[in-house]
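User: Structure please.
Assistant: Input sequence and predicted structure:
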Amino acid sequence: MADFDPQDMLQRYRERAAAVRRRQLPPVGGDERQMFIKQAEQDFMDFAIIGDATAELVDGVLTLTVDLNPKAE
């Protein structure tokens, strides 16, 4: 675990979220297209939530804290 950097992990999740946003729709239609879109939305949300977390590694225990409250504008 000495080589593990939680900040690097969070950066990879941010990059995955961005990649999902850039993902092209395949040439499918109908129900398959809707399933693809729904999966992309879920992938983005999951990756973005982890990417926005704060991480703490203490004694080999990784703790991610995620604030799901809406951000003030």
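Helices lie at 6-22, 30-51.
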